[in-house]
TrEMBL record:
GO terms of biological process kind: protein catabolic process
Catalytic activity from the UniProt record: N-terminal L-lysyl-[protein] + L-leucyl-tRNA(Leu) = N-terminal L-leucyl-L-lysyl-[protein] + tRNA(Leu) + H(+); L-phenylalanyl-tRNA(Phe) + an N-terminal L-alpha-aminoacyl-[protein] = an N-terminal L-phenylalanyl-L-alpha-aminoacyl-[protein] + tRNA(Phe); N-terminal L-arginyl-[protein] + L-leucyl-tRNA(Leu) = N-terminal L-leucyl-L-arginyl-[protein] + tRNA(Leu) + H(+)
The protein's Enzyme Commission number: 2.3.2.6
Classification via Pfam families: Leu_Phe_trans
Gene (name only): aat
Entry keywords, A to Z: Acyltransferase, Cytoplasm, Transferase
The protein's name: Leucyl/phenylalanyl-tRNA--protein transferase
InterPro entries: Acyl_CoA_acyltransferase, Leu/Phe-tRNA_Trfase, Leu/Phe-tRNA_Trfase_C
Amino acid sequence: MRALTPDLLLHAYAAGIFPMARSRSDPRMYWVDPEQRGILPLETFHVPHRLRRTLRRGGFEIRCDSAFEAVMRACGEPTPDRPETWINEPIVRLFVDLHDRGLAHSVEAWQDGTLVGGLYGLALGAAFFGESMFSRQTDASKVALVHLVARLKAGGFRLLDTQFVTAHLSQFGAIEIPRQDYRRLLSDALTRPAWFDPSPGLGWECAFGEQGEADSL
């Protein structure tokens, strides 16, 4: 792969491909274009009952874009069940640059002034490319994901790309679709305006409600 620049990275995402490293210590990257693409449909996003109770208790302070690089580096740290990750130093630098441009965002879960979970991704048009998440406290990354989706729905986003589908994401309604279907959704989303709202006052209830049909998910 030739040397990546932030602008080249934006063109790649707009074309439906993304880079990964084989390990966090390997400076090289390669392009990924899955035949089956993971997405989280915003209109059918599922908040499990137990997580809804956690959200109501409000045990986390949610911030956006206040510690973007720290979130990225935490996502790249090895864990007992994930000894290796694909986020290397060049990827960190590229996304920090895109964050400085206002295109990459983080949603963070804090407790007592400590960052305990979060996620980050890239916004282009009405598409949001979710990259990675981490958790140092139970449910921290899940709470961050719910708050991300609330912001995407409020801001007019049409597509939440998860790249792949994991067991963690399946509980929220993540699905796989063929590459050509994904590219059609992406092409449409890129032509539409959307706005990522980082304000702390935007609660998850505005997107999912507390009663009625939404509460039966």
